[in-house]
Design a protein that fits this description.
mainly alpha; 11 helices; about 70% helix
């Protein structure tokens, strides 16, 4: 290759378990993947078919978030299932970088959608009179486009810079997927400013979104504690509590990557945490958002009556 790379494929070690455990994991992830797709597709179909939900900004954002979760889980789990059927876990150089780009782009889009939903709740609760004008259909549409567009533009530079490094040594990745850290660990020196640039991009998007979400929900909670919200406080708290659970699950698991203990078990901890936010949270999020959600239950009832 023109960039001096001699490695043409990588080997993903995966979980390093026996044949019986591999089979059980394969069944588990296959069921998890199918159920996750079904859950998120149900939300999308409900929002698209229900004329009431399709006009509400929160559910427009939620349906796009569900589409994002489908893409996010499809970036990792099918490949994981495929590798569990074969002990080799070989992935081509191009496929590895494609997975890395999609994983980080979709992750950044998820950050942005969580911020967009936090903004929606802030405007709905703290600025109720101005909410219809600010959160207009045009603004909501622009917000959706921005979340998808910025997410997929964010990591073009880091992925391009890493792909131009030389990989002339080992091609074994002690992980079940390709990400920035595992790929950079195999690159031959000098690495130049590439690791620094990648860290800057990651921190800039992650920390800015965390700060925005914390400030938004913090302001919402302070507003709800005022005496004027006494009557509607319980319902509003019930709504944002589910949002906060989703935010905590995602950012908590991502933060776990940064606080992994150093040592020989670090790789296993990293795998477990990565598995949680790439596979388990997309499965849990639809249930958390729609659990005890009266509007979703009403939409399901209307859809059933239409079919009858």
């Amino acid at each position: 290759m023109d960039n001096g790379t001699t490695v043409t494929e990588f080997i993903l070690l995966g979980f390093g378990v026996g044949q019986q455990e591999r089979f059980l994991l394969l069944i588990f992830f296959a069921i998890l993947y199918v159920v996750t797709l079904a859950e998120n597709l149900t939300i999308i179909i409900l929002v698209v078919l229900d004329t009431h939900l399709s006009r509400l900004p929160m559910y427009i954002l939620l349906s796009n978030f569900s589409l994002l979760e489908i893409c996010y889980v499809s970036t990792t789990v099918p490949r994981l299932i495929l590798d569990l059927t074969s002990p080799q876990g070989v992935i081509s150089f191009t496929d590895c970088f494609l997975q890395f780009y999609l994983l980080f782009s979709l992750g950044t889009s998820e950050d942005l959608f969580l911020s967009a939903m936090a903004l929606d709740r802030y405007l709905a609760i703290c600025q109720p009179l101005r909410y219809p004008q600010i959160m207009s259909p045009d603004f909501c549409f622009a917000l959706v486009i921005a979340c998808w567009g910025l997410g997929f533009m964010a990591y073009i530079i880091p992925v391009t810079m890493i792909s131009k490094l030389s990989f002339c040594g080992t091609n074994v990745i002690d992980h079940f997927l390709c990400d920035a850290g595992t790929i950079l660990s195999l690159a031959c020196p000098p690495l130049g400013v590439t690791p620094f640039v990648c860290q800057i991009f990651l921190n800039a998007f992650l920390l800015s979104n965390i700060l925005f979400v914390v400030l938004s929900y913090g302001t919402v909670i302070v507003t709800l504690m005022k005496p004027s919200f006494k009557g509607s406080r319980r319902k509003a708290f019930s709504t944002i509590s589910f949002h906060l659970i989703v935010v905590t699950l995602f950012y908590g698991s991502v933060a776990g990557i940064y606080i992994c203990p150093e040592g020989e078990n670090q790789a296993e901890v990293t795998k477990a945490v990565t598995l949680f936010y790439t596979s388990i949270t997309p499965f849990l999020n639809p249930m958390i958002y729609c659990l005890r959600n009266d509007q979703v239950k009403d939409a399901l009832g209307r859809l059933r009556r239409r079919k009858v």
